[in-house]
Design goal:
The complex is a heterodimer of chains A (349) and B (259). Chain A is an alpha/beta fold and 349 residues long. Chain A has helices spanning 3-13, 28-37, 53-65, 76-91, 118-122, 140-157, 167-171, 212-232, 252-267, 285-294, 308-316, 335-347; strands at residues 18-21, 46-49, 70-74, 96-102, 133-135, 160-166, 204-205, 236-239, 246-249, 272-277, 279-281, 297-301, 321-325. Classes of the chains: A alpha/beta (349), B alpha/beta (259).
């Protein structure tokens, strides 16, 4: 099935309570699949086509604040519209899943795949000091698996989780193993607004504190949570790094391309390895820093003008040469281009 | 707290003429003297209490003067982003259909930045109550022009009076939503006299009943005053409201169910 369809089916099977979306290419299959499947009749999951991306993310806010497992999905321009709501969700510490099937930008851009929303996803996106947990799938299987993982992490940390996919993985068809049907939540978190019984104080969901001292204390609390996430939730995958003299760092579609580049380079006698970050926040800083001691140079490959490369540079901290290579505007880099760039930019550079 | 001489002699059970509902907290309200928000909060809390819905209610507060609604009513409340309360309430009601769900919004929140969310929630006939407090001005930010500001009316962003040619006309959102098939009960009331308070309370009570019966969106506009924003005393503001606001926003039902 398609990556987008895998997300939709995985959401039903994860026992999601609600999906709120708005059509935009290249991810409309998620809403279409859910409407066709009509899970209201089976699991009781609510599926609603909102009037805008803005309304959809605020529906997610309302549902998440009731302690429910809720999600939305969109593509780059739509995710930009959601940023206000995402900031509120982060500020109110609500769990939810947001899927971005990235297309080329800026502006209306193109409907072809890109990775140019890295900064927006990892560095904040909306206003204020906050972070999302960002998962980067590189296959249809991972688009399905990261729905469940996303909800798990979202509830574990009371934090929004973003699945940063792209138009290639969303649209491509691959075999996928789906998890068995999970039951929907029956018990809700103690902070959820479900109607105030006599037995507890009222629950208030807000991101407002007019007292700057209170807001500062809250912000420190958020930062402490992000540090715990940095400590415990880093995920990455390595490919032929054991004897590597050069390292490629790439996520999502670019990581698939780079896996082939590693093979091509090794056929030419160049010992190249690949590190694929699976979580972009938290970033595999420590591991990249370790590998920087062993390699002669690192090429960060992204379908962007160079965004993740900044985190690679921070991780390496000057230990070795770091360069960026990537195609822009919706064009997928070829494995050969990566090898050529490695040779001219890092090895010969 | 101010010590008032002889207050203990006055506050005795036998002298009690009126008791505030237990659903209103003892937090000091942030509203200006003479503002209608306090009264609107009180009757809303009274209805929730009297209908036995305390444990069954989830409210959504807006951005604006009533952003701190959650400090004053002792129920579960979500504070929404500016204008988005109807979208937030949509999800709450869809996911918890047995609960009583309301939004409480001002004119800037509901009729400017939240126009789309308001119209579409009403158009879908979401089974929620929308309380729309219209005082024709942005109160919290210091008295700027609102979509509902009357023609010629002065505000900090229309200091020479609202020129409809360049600033648009005052928007009658309640009339608009009344035309939508999704709304079931649409009314415009006020809370500036005891008689009007009673009428508004009755309207809220009706909306509660309709929501129990899953009838669709109930929309109650409360035309209210803003003494600070209008630069008037409370008494002047109520008089001005009657003479100037009510002719443009006439009180009464706009859509009543055919029972």
């Amino acid at each position: 099935m398609k990556g987008n369809e895998a997300v939709a089916e995985a959401a039903i099977r994860a026992g999601a309570d609600g999906y709120f979306g708005y059509p935009i290419t290249p991810q409309s299959e998620i809403l279409e699949y859910l409407m066709e499947a009509n899970p209201a009749e089976t699991t009781g999951m609510v599926v609603l086509q909102a009037e805008s991306e803005v309304a959809a993310i605020n529906m997610v806010y309302g549902g998440a604040a009731c302690g429910k497992k809720v999600m939305t999905s969109s593509s780059s321009p739509g995710i930009s519209l959601k940023q206000e709501g995402i900031s509120y969700i982060a500020g109110a510490e609500l769990p939810c899943l947001i899927v971005n099937v990235v297309r080329g930008g800026p502006g209306l851009g193109t409907i072809q795949p890109a990775q140019s929303d890295y900064f927006q996803s990892v560095k904040g996106g909306g206003h204020g000091d906050y972070h999302l947990i960002v998962l980067a799938p590189a296959s249809v299987q991972e688009m399905a698996d990261f729905v469940d993982l996303g909800f798990e992490l979202a509830f574990k940390y009371r934090n929004p989780v973003l699945m940063l996919s792209d138009g290639a993985i969303g649209q491509m068809m691959e075999k996928v193993y789906l998890s068995p049907q999970k039951e929907r939540l029956k018990v809700f978190a103690e902070w959820a607004t479900t109607g105030k019984p006599e037995t507890r104080e009222r629950n208030i969901i807000t991101s407002l504190d007019l007292d700057p001292n209170g807001q500062e204390i809250f912000n420190h609390k958020l930062q402490e949570k992000y540090n715990v996430i940095r400590e415990n939730e880093v995920r990455y995958e390595e490919f032929q790094t054991e004897d590597a003299e050069y390292l490629l760092v790439a996520y999502g579609t670019s990581a698939r391309v780079c896996q082939k580049s590693v093979q091509l380079a090794r056929e030419q006698g160049i010992k190249v390895g690949l590190l694929r970050p699976i979580t972009l926040f938290p970033f595999p800083t420590k591991r990249i820093n370790e590998l920087a001691d062993k390699v002669k140079g690192i090429l960060s490959v992204e379908m962007s003008a160079g965004q993740m490369v900044e985190d690679v540079l921070l991780s390496v901290n000057g230990k070795t040469d770091v360069r960026h290579f990537g195609r822009l505007g919706g064009i997928v880099t070829t494995p050969e281009e990566v090898v050529e760039n490695l040779k001219s930019n890092i090895i010969g550079g | 707290m101010l010590e008032i001489t002889g207050i203990k002699e006055i506050i005795k059970p036998e002298n009690l003429a009126y008791r505030k509902t237990s659903l209103l907290t003892d937090n000091t309200m942030s509203y200006c003297p003479g503002c209608g928000h306090g009264t609107a909060h009180r009757i809303l809390a009274e209805v929730i209490d009297e209908e036995g819905l305390k444990s069954q209610t989830i409210g959504v507060s807006p951005v604006g003067c009533s952003v701190l609604l959650y400090n004053y009513i002792d129920i579960d409340i979500q504070q929404a982003a500016h204008g988005r309360a109807p979208a937030v309430a949509t999800a709450i009601k869809r996911l918890l259909p047995d609960k009583f769900v309301f939004t409480y919004q001002g004119d800037g929140d509901l009729a400017a930045i939240g126009t789309a969310e308001t119209i579409h929630a009403c158009n879908r006939g979401e089974n929620i109550l929308i309380i729309f407090v219209n005082n024709g001005i942005y109160g919290m930010t210091g008295g700027q022009m609102a979509p509902t500001t009357l023609a010629g009316m002065k505000s900090t962003t229309s200091p020479h009076g609202r020129d409809v040619k360049t600033m648009g006309n005052p928007l009658k959102m309640t009339d608009i939503v009344a035309t939508l098939p999704g709304t079931y009960y649409v009314t415009r009331q006020s809370v500036h006299t005891p008689a009007n308070v009673r009428k508004t309370k009755k309207a809220i009570r009706k909306a509660v009943q309709y929501q129990k019966l899953d009838r669709g969106t109930c929309f109650i506009e409360i035309v209210s005053n803003c003494p600070s924003g209008w630069r008037m005393t409370p008494t002047q503001s109520n008089k001005w409201m009657e003479e100037t606001m009510f002719p443009y926003y006439p009180l009464g039902d706009l859509k009543v169910p055919e029972e």
